[in-house]
Amino acid sequence: MRENSSLTLVLNRTFRHWSLLPAVALFVALTIYPVANLFRMSVSTIEFAQAGEAWTFTPLRNLALLRADEVVPAAVRNTLIFVVAAVAIEMVLGLALAIIVAGAARGKGLIRTVMILPILVPPVAIGSIWKLLYNYDFGIFNQTLAALHLPPVNWLGSTSLALWSVVIVDVWHWVPFVFLILFAAVEALPVDVLEAARVDGATRWQLLRRVMLPLLRPAIVVALLFRTILAFKVFDEVFLLTSGGPGTSTELVTLHLYKVFFDQNQLGYGSLLSLALIAAIVAFLLVGRQAVRLARP
Amino acid sequence: MAAVNIRNVGKQFDSVVVMRNIDLDVADGEFIVLVGASGCGKSTLLRMIAGLEPITSGEIAIGGRRVNELEPRERDVAMVFQTYALYPHLDVRENMSFSLRLRKRAPAEIDRLVEATATTLDLQPLLARLPRALSGGQRQRVAMGRAIVRHPQLFLFDEPLSNLDAKLRVAMRTEIRALHQRLHATSIYVTHDQVEAMTMADRMVVMNAGRIEQIGRPLDVYDHPATLYVAQFIGSPAINVWTGVVEASSEGASLRTDHGLRLALPASDVTAGTRLAAAFRPEHVVLDGVGPLEARVSVVEPLGPETYVYLDVGGTRVCARVDRTQTLAPGDPVRCDVAASAIHVFDASNGARLSTTS
Amino acid sequence: MNTSATALSLPRSATTTPATAVGGGWIGTTLLALAVAAVLGPFAWILTASFKYQIAIYSGEWPFTPTLSNYAEVLFGRRSDFVGNVVNSLIVASASTALVLVVGTLAAYSLQRFRWPVWVSAGFLGWTLVFHMIPVMTLIGPWYVAFRELGLYDTRIALILTHVTINLPMTVWLMRAFFRELPPEIEEAALVDGCRPLEAFRRVTLPLVIPGLIASGILAFIFSWNEFPVALSLTSRDLATVPVAIARFAQQYEIQHSQMAAASIVSTIPAVILMALGQRFIVRGLTLGAVK
Which pLDDT value is given to residue B261? Predict the structure, then answer.
């Protein structure tokens, strides 16, 4: 480092102050300002013209659009079904897998490596992979059914089945995440406590029910919270798999938001939807924080 | 080398005053030990001297130069941390030469200094190792080496031995003293261990609750504790303390203790009716069979060269040091006495010393 | 695989793991194998599909004649921009990762090391958490408007900045956890030894959090490479990234299934490489945020 250069001197003197500055600046410019702007946009109609954008103050129009938008109730309903079903299945499978696999004689390193893969692979690629797996004509599932002389199933094209097909993909995608968190927690369980319980005469089931699960509760709550919030954010895979179809049977709030913004070019109305979604997430966060607090011993 | 002058130093965290009116002069080449229970402020004072902790009032000078506003690196002090704080990513040689390289000393000179220090501390075989490959004792020596190699004006030690096992701690204690006698470097050493303080210090500073209780040579502090706190903190086993009220009689003042015992007090100007605390060390309890105090042996602790006996004297526990030849068993009745001249008398309300005993 | 039943019955206290107490050896191992197969199966199927001619996919014939033509067509075909998409993705992911590491590490260090007023640190960290939880789609509208106004719409700069913002919360939280594990004395020793604050940070503190930098860097790169909604909304055809390109494959009127498979396989390559290189860092990073 150059000695005594005045720049170095100033940087050193003020290190504690400027070290946080870039992050704060970025956040103000790219998150706080946009959220503030959402409020302005949500009461406006914005149109792009040759000369630039034209803003008009039309709060009632956006509200009217919301009232008239028939996709919104479907999207909310689908999102709730999707989140509850996917997260519930993921938690149960992930927890069972973590507890049982922790007893495996070998292969724990392997499964840790393999389980990272779905988390790191582009969600879009997962969507595209499963789109092929689900293909009516030649996908692996219908090929298997054909081999068993069973009729093919229209996995993504049937209004009654499509949402569940999407749930299956999400389960495949995210069970590994739940597994990794809970597996780490299981491996970190205090061995002496478990041994004490065994000495005290606990059966396997009692050990699981009365000792391990209570000890794992904080990790379970954290995994549950993470998964629920991430499940609300889901977009990429569903965009690839069904884009919300057939009809509105797999329409989710994020997908609908995208369509309002970029297919219908309704920036103002989209902002209104965005604000509502943010409010819902923040409300959920506050409730979830309370749940975590209660779960801590 | 340099003297250190601490003038009226105080410290506040937010609105809480944690230290006030600290005055301390450390002579050039002196080995000063700051001792006290945890939380007494001794480490904070050391860190203030190092510049790691800001001072809210007063002045600290090192070598006659005011250092309040100086960064740690500008103070020319070296510090040995309790956790050693070795740079985990640098090997022993790089750890020791780090400060020299920062100061852009010539490579040849750096090598010479590191080699010399390594020789002094028997670190040569370890120079290429990383800290994680060293034992606790070796890490401690590297931390010492990293401080010594710089030849700083002032050495600061923050409980450097407390993470070592008992045997190694005693050996290092001696070694640090020997090093100091050779280098004659001004040193300020923080410990909670009063044995370390007694054995190592030229002068020790006993601290309590952010204040200095007493400054003095170890034996002077031991013999003439300035406060009841110091009397109780220094000495192992701990000093015996009886509280009570002064009574005057024809033979002189005596103490009527809270347990109803009578203890003759040294001649002093305490007035009858005063509440005070009388303290006397185990070695001043005489088990002669004729003393005025009736006692019963409750526990006997033979240490080898001497034996400590815990006595039940009228419902209070008193520790006495006896010769190893004296055979006592729990339950034995004994009579004992305390030499009046060996009793320290303190004001029971504030712990201040009331008398001077020889 | 030797799955002897001894783990079930013999009480070997030295090897009691939480799970040998409940689950049994061979059940665990069997389930483990099943889980591994379930995760890898779809990848294996798509990998084979990527080496098949379209006609072989339709007929489901087995064994098939492997071909590289899908990859050739995807990467070098006259109608394909895929190489351009890969280059775009690499540029955006590399630049945003470098930036987020600098900005995020400085912020994490600052929050951990310096005594900021509570409203600053708690406010900052709380907001990063909230922002991390919000679907990114909700902010795309204002981003779109702002970048158009600034003339940055359909530029890599816009994409890089948004990706830095998206990855900043994770980086800050992760690096903060690593800084928290460092004993402050090490940096204090450096200050006493003669370092200026910045020097102590650069020469002592930073080298000690390299595992954290690797974990954050890998995750930030992967998430930027994978990011879809922003790239879809803020770029046109020329600046499309790999996920956007794959989505276009899937939306064509006549889907080239074998090429879609090949493109998907190519898109997973960075994840696979980085996973192989930095597995232990990633697991630490993914679980650290969740457990702490």
Answer: 86
User: Judged by CB atoms within 8 Å, which residues 127-156 of A form the interface with C?
Assistant: 127-133, 135, 137-138, 140, 143
In chain A, the residue whose alpha carbon lies closest to the alpha carbon of C151 is A52
Query: Which one of B52, B88, B98 has the shortest CB-CB distance to C208?
Result: B88
Q: What is the mean pLDDT of residues C222-251?
A: 89
Q: Which chains touch B (3 or more CB pairs under 8 A)?
A: C
| d(C-alpha A8, C-alpha C233), whole Å | 41
- Look at A191 and C32 and tell me if their CB atoms are within 8 Å: no
Q: What is the CATH number of domain A61-295?
A: 1.10.3720.10
Which residues are paired to A116 by β-bridges? none
Q: What are phi and psi of C8, to 5 degrees?
A: -70, -50
Q: What is the pLDDT of residues B260-319, one digit of tens each?
A: 888 888 877 677 888 889 999 999 998 877 888 889 999 999 998 889 999 999 888 999
Domain boundaries, chain A: 2-42, 61-295
Token digits for C148? 């158009």
- Full strand arrangement of the beta sheet holding B344-347: B262-264, B252-257, B240-249, B275-280, B344-347
Identify the band that residue B356 occupies on the pLDDT scale cut at 50, 70 and 90.
Answer: low
Instruction: Give every strand in the sheet of B57-62, ordered side by side.
Output: B16-26, B4-13, B57-62, B65-66
Q: Is C149 on the interface with B (CB under 8 A)?
A: no
Instruction: Give the per-residue pLDDT at B242.
Output: 92
Across the interface, of A34, A107, A179, the residue whose CB is closest to C143 is A34
Is the alpha carbon torsion for A22, A24, A27, A33 positive or negative?
Answer: negative
Dist. CA A151–CA A134, nearest whole Å = 14
Nearest residue on chain C to A121, alpha-carbon basis:
C268
Comparing C21 with B296, the larger pLDDT belongs to B296
Question: Which residues of chain A fall below pLDDT 50?
Answer: 1-3
Cα(B111)–Cα(A84) distance, integer angstroms: 67
- State how far residue C212 is from chain B, nearest Cα, in angstroms: 15
Interface test with B, best of C178, C193, C205 (most B CBs within 10 A): C193
| Smallest CA–CA distance from A24 into chain C, residue | C124
**How many whole angstroms separate alpha carbon B288 and alpha carbon B305?**
19
- What the block records as the tokens of A101 is 């696999």
A12, A31, A198 ranked by CB distance to C198: nearest: A12
What's the pTM?
Answer: 0.84
Among A26, A120, A177, A243, most C C-beta atoms within 10 A, so best to mutate, is A120
Chain C residues near residue B85 by CB distance under 8 angstroms = 183, 185-186, 188-189
What residues contact residue A204 under an 8 Å CB cut-off, 6+ apart?
A: C21, C22
> Percent of chain B scored above 90 by pLDDT?
60
- Is B92 within 8 Å of chain C by CB? no
**Cβ of A102 and C17 within 8 Å?**
yes
Say which residues have a Cβ less than 8 Å from residue C104's Cβ, sequence separation at least 6: A23, C167, C168, C171, C172, C175, C216
What digits encode the pLDDT tens for the residues B335-354?
A: 988 888 889 999 988 888 88
| CA B326/CA B308 separation, integer angstroms | 11
What is the predicted ipTM? 0.88
Please give the Cα distance from B21 to B323 (Å, whole number): 44
Tell which wins on pLDDT, A271 or C253.
Answer: A271
Mean pLDDT of C200-213: 91
| Cβ <8 Å between B71 and C193 | no
Q: Is A191 on the interface with C (CB under 8 A)?
A: yes
